[in-house]
Amino acid sequence: MAADTLSGLDALDLAGRESGGSTLSRVWAATWPKVLALAFVLGIWQVVYWSGWREPWVLPEPREVFADLARATATADFWHAIATTLRRGLVGFALAAGIGLVLGAAVARVAPLRAALGSAITALQTMPSIAWFPLAILLFQISENAILFVVVLGAAPSIANGVISGVDYVPPLLLRAGRNFGARGLALYRYVVAPASLPAIVSGLKQGWAFAWRSLLAGELLVIIAHRPALGVRLQGLREQNDAVGVISTMIVIFVIGVLADTVFSYADRRLRRAWGLA
Amino acid sequence: MAADTLSGLDALDLAGRESGGSTLSRVWAATWPKVLALAFVLGIWQVVYWSGWREPWVLPEPREVFADLARATATADFWHAIATTLRRGLVGFALAAGIGLVLGAAVARVAPLRAALGSAITALQTMPSIAWFPLAILLFQISENAILFVVVLGAAPSIANGVISGVDYVPPLLLRAGRNFGARGLALYRYVVAPASLPAIVSGLKQGWAFAWRSLLAGELLVIIAHRPALGVRLQGLREQNDAVGVISTMIVIFVIGVLADTVFSYADRRLRRAWGLA
Amino acid sequence: MTAEDVASVLPERAAAERLALTLAGVSKVFGRGPAAVHALDKVSLTVAAGEFVCLVGASGCGKSTLLSLVAGLDQPTGGTIDVAGGARPGLMFQEPALFPWLTVAGNVGLPLRLRKVPRAERAVRVSALLRTVHLAEFGKRRPHQLSGGMRQRVAMARTLALDTPVLLMDEPFGALDAMTRDILHDEIERIWQERALTVLFVTHNVREAARLGDRIVLLSSRPGRVVADWRVEVPRPRRIDSPEIAAVAAEVTDRLREEVRRHGR
Amino acid sequence: MTAEDVASVLPERAAAERLALTLAGVSKVFGRGPAAVHALDKVSLTVAAGEFVCLVGASGCGKSTLLSLVAGLDQPTGGTIDVAGGARPGLMFQEPALFPWLTVAGNVGLPLRLRKVPRAERAVRVSALLRTVHLAEFGKRRPHQLSGGMRQRVAMARTLALDTPVLLMDEPFGALDAMTRDILHDEIERIWQERALTVLFVTHNVREAARLGDRIVLLSSRPGRVVADWRVEVPRPRRIDSPEIAAVAAEVTDRLREEVRRHGR
Amino acid sequence: GGSPQKASGAGDPVTLRLGYFPNLTHATPIVGIKKNFYADKLGRNVAIEAKTFNAGPEAVEALFSGAVDATYIGPNPTVNAWQKSKGQAVRVVAGAASGGAAFVVKPDITGPEQLKGKKIASPQLGNTQDVALRYWLKQHGLNTTKEGGGDITILPQANADTVTAFGTGAIDGAWVPEPFASRLVKAGGKVLVDERDLWPGGKFVVTNLLVSTKFLKAHPDVVKNLIAGQVEANDFINANPVEAQQVVNAAIGELSGKVPDAKQTADAWKTLTFLNDPIASSLRDGARHAEEVGLLQPVDLTGIYDLTLLNEVLKARGAPEVKV
Ligand SMILES: Nc1ncnc2c1ncn2[C@@H]1O[C@H](COP(=O)(O)OP(=O)(O)OP(=O)(O)O)[C@@H](O)[C@H]1O
Ligand SMILES: Nc1ncnc2c1ncn2[C@@H]1O[C@H](COP(=O)(O)OP(=O)(O)OP(=O)(O)O)[C@@H](O)[C@H]1O
Ligand SMILES: [Mg+2]
Ligand SMILES: [Mg+2]
Description:
The complex is a heteropentamer, with two copies of chain A, two copies of chain C and one copy of chain E. Chain A is mostly helical. Chain A folds into two domains: about 1-55; about 60-275, MetI-like (MetI-like fold), CATH 1.10.3720. Chain A has eleven helices and no strands. In chain A, helix 9 packs antiparallel against helix 11 (about 245-275). The longest helix of chain A is centred in the C-terminal third of the chain and has 35 residues, at about 185-220. Chain A starts with a helix and ends with a helix. The relative contact order of chain A is 0.11. Chain C has two domains: about 5-90 and about 165-260, 3-Layer(aba) Sandwich (Rossmann fold), CATH 3.40.50; about 100-165, no CATH class. Chain C has a six-stranded mixed beta sheet, sandwiched between helices. A three-stranded antiparallel beta sheet of chain C has the order 2-1-4. In chain C, helix 4 (about 120-130) packs across helix 5 (about 150-160) and helix 7 (about 205-210) crosses helix 8. By secondary structure, chain E is α/β, with parallel strands linked by helices. In chain E, helix 5 (about 130-140) links the parallel strand 6 (about 120) and strand 7 (about 155). The relative contact order of chain E is 0.19. At the A-E interface, helix 4, helix 6 and helix 10 of A face strand 2, helix 3, helix 6 and helix 10 of E. Bound molecules: adenosine-5'-triphosphate (2 copies) and magnesium ion (2 copies). One adenosine-5'-triphosphate (ATP) sits at the interface of chains D and C.
């Protein structure tokens, strides 16, 4: 039997690792499963709708939702809402990333800090956003900063935990090599620990983004400003209006933003893996 | 200069990696920073209180909060609430872990699935719990299952992402070795991929627990069941009553549970690192 | 297919049957475009069943790449590779490639576990294999607690646990002192004979090649091509410090030196 | 301290100054209790400044452990280690230990970057070092695109970039073919003489030890102890296949063989 | 936090931070701001800064933290704020709206006797509607427990979820405020009890104006003008209900991103009354009812109302004064 045949058996095992083929075939390979998945979900939804399982005002038709989405996208408010929330998300995430990275780096390598704060970080991560609302208002009154505070408290622990996990698993051999080259303290971090834990850090940042985004959509209810629509307020507002169509179309928007965010992280991750010889 | 002195400089770099010393001194090293941190936080809080920065009904005194906590711990309801929420959390987390692990494993190694769902997983992760409430009620009416549904949707994507990240970074050499030994499909997973990505999986489970717990505390508001007090309901109820003392004391409870959860994960992580020669 | 055809084909097929490995015009190019590396270029090589073939060549000439192709872990860019009986050859990698989450015994036992060998039998076989590589007392250790040479020996024991008829070994004794290596030469020769294995063995030590091989194959550098193929006629048992082996080694070394010089190093 | 004391101490201190490394009763025990491994037991060794000392011993006898202690990467359980001038010795690990996120040039240039050598000078030095190890065209590659021997040479170039007066090398040429190794023997000898380095060099190849070393130190196994110490009187330049080197190697090999046998392998 | 401004002299500029919710029962402040009734009364020296809240707790947190000076709010958080601050932090200086709550059930339920064993939702344990529900059930001989047990299972739930749950048949009814009650009717429910029928004159407080005591002490004149603005706003609302509805709908749309259905608003509007009387009796009776069904520790509400400014305004307009 030819070795070709043997390795044919491994085709599945290699999924996602093979990069060959033309650009067109790569695009096609990346696209058809998404289209299929989408068609599948829409199909189920439509069939359930047709089955009359629930009243249309509880479970609306896909067509109606997309019509609503189309209507919404034609309004400036819709785009303002997205822009406002994205801006807050990015600012909050950047802040959280800064704090999380520094905190994680410090806690990972300084034993007393780790003993003091290690478990507290996870504990903070499990604290629901609403628990922070009173403190946010107390510290920042009704201001954008109150939202950022909630976002940072939501995301920073997650990012810090990613860093800690990454640092903990840096291969000791590389650490020893770095130290032998005279890398100390910050230099060791900059040239060895940080790059070696980059995969875990990217993964932590991705989780952090999810925390940030969720905290943000909750936290936006803290500061509701006229003429400054925001996704979180929109979602809550539509929910209060029991507008199933609107809620689902907003969920689609959140979903799409999530997909785009993932694309950014995946891109970073893929580049990393390619450089490291893993993809 | 002696090499001893040189390595002395590395003492900080080695924080958390050195394991020597007697049991007593290890316990002491793990305890004093916690005590100090706690004392520090309590101290600041007390000083701020004494400064009269805010009225006592906005920012109560530590003493008052701990008195409230002591009162609460003397009631059966308090323990029932914790027990109920913990049980839901554990069941939901177990479900989420099962789904997340399988989903992550499948998506990580099957290219079309990854193309179809890879980004969707992160997108689902960013969806706030309240967005799922209507669907939860649609599918599960007013039942414990509705809560579990929200918890699973909150935590499973995070766990799946942990698995994917872990699988992506399995050293190719180990994969090749496994395949050469005749490990295919499930066997390759069981004997090579899974153990090699265990660190990332543990880290993903930890993040997943945080998501599960947050989703749970929000989701508990969906189903407030007879004779079954729960932490989420308690927190929300106290907040609705603007009971700062109660909110803070409930936050302390959540915090302590978070610390305990982290202890479990840290223990698993430390054992792993010790076995791998990393700690 | 007529009766005559079958008759005329049979002897040929029987001859082919005795070939354990057949590489026909195998090429391997890494990457694409101007940055492409032509690691192997139309390598043709046959190894008879039960033969011990040593592969030598300069650093980076494509020896590891070749083994990896034969093991089916990579796809050749051109040409075909046939492994008689379709059995996947066992490969001992150039690096130990031990699993850090398993003990030494766990690592050695993994191939057995994958073949569902019962636990009791496994324990017996693992300790026999560890004795073979002189690490009997180290079964409970973890890879990170071993020295470089010990790790290499564990990797060797693990590869032997595969029980494949064809064994590919990539510098298995590179990290061992001369004494331990001599002992393991005897061991591998014994196992090869006992199990009637076919071995493709990469080494930098030409004496080692002469000590162990039925044949020595020399690969040129970038692109890797087969440039020489000696049959070592020294009868076994052989001693690595015998003059016959030294003579063979000298001849191979001369040719290798010439080859390396031709490529400007 | 009186004037007389100073006078009498000075010559002694001058003598001590010429020692690059002083190990006094160095022990290293891994783990605790019954599972403890006594890797090194009261090793005492001095290396004069500018000396090239080769360390040989059976697999697992504690050579790597010793280098690691001298490099200050581990703490001895007992005894003291003095490095003259307090400079941290440069260590070339037994594994290449390349940083996967850096190119070959990036890896070699890292020690320079850490010393804040300006970019332009760094580029010049890196390409000179890569030429030394015959990898001039490979600067832009990543470690995973290299062969085993190439990786080892990159690691060597990187260690040379450290510019430390004391160099510790753990089997630097283990994965190299004989030709490339011969060339690198010349290179390392040249650099050693040019830079007046002190080198502590672990190898399994006794001929290599005889080819390169001013002294050859033999370590016994578990616990590791210094059991023999030869001065290689063969004048340089030496050739690895010269009869003088073969004679030295034979002597060392005999002793080593005896040592290994004494420990039951 | 700039709340405790020093007592304003004649010329000192003052900023009044006023909170409200984007919601029908808050039509008074919405119209007051949109139609400049407040601005006109407060004059050029006083800047009004509107702050919008999603729910009562945030509004009280903001009031406590000095992030707002006054807020329109429901009776329930009003009592909480009073009780938690031991009567120090806040005062009710005017009412704004009454009515707008109903007990809606599945059509096959026609009386209390059929409610046994059913699942009924309320907005939140111990809130106005929850108390009304429990008290009403008690009056009809049906007992309930705080934990949701008893003859009837009471499920405290977010109003939005209640509508969904009713739509899927997961609950049999709910005692909810507008516009949720109208929505339940639209979803096939039937009004079993219109809460107006339970109160004298059909009036019970749903929104009132809560001011921080500090601000009230520091700037009584500003608060008085605020009240004057609200009185104008209420007059406008009562005179031009259709236009008021449009203004409110537009404002809700502006804040939440979606303009509510005009018809729904009109339906809900019918059950509401906009007035300046805080209907103190309903607050006190509500508290008493809560105590009776075991949801509230006895609370002394004496002093929660400070209606002197309101009465001054009303008197100046020749309108009848209100009593505590
Ligand atoms: N993944 C890869 N990408 C690009 N080039 C590669 C890759 N793997 C190997 N090469 C190149 O292919 C050539 C052959 O490599 P190979 O590892 O087979 O050499 P080798 O003969 O085993 O050398 P050594 O004796 O040093 O181990 C080298 O030039 C190497 O740089
Ligand atoms: N971290 C560790 N924990 C426990 N034992 C260890 C550890 N590191 C090394 N050892 C043990 O110490 C002994 C010496 O190891 P070392 O790596 O120094 O050997 P070596 O002389 O370099 O061998 P080789 O030639 O095979 O590389 C070995 O028995 C090894 O098992
Ligand atoms: Mg190789
Ligand atoms: Mg070693």
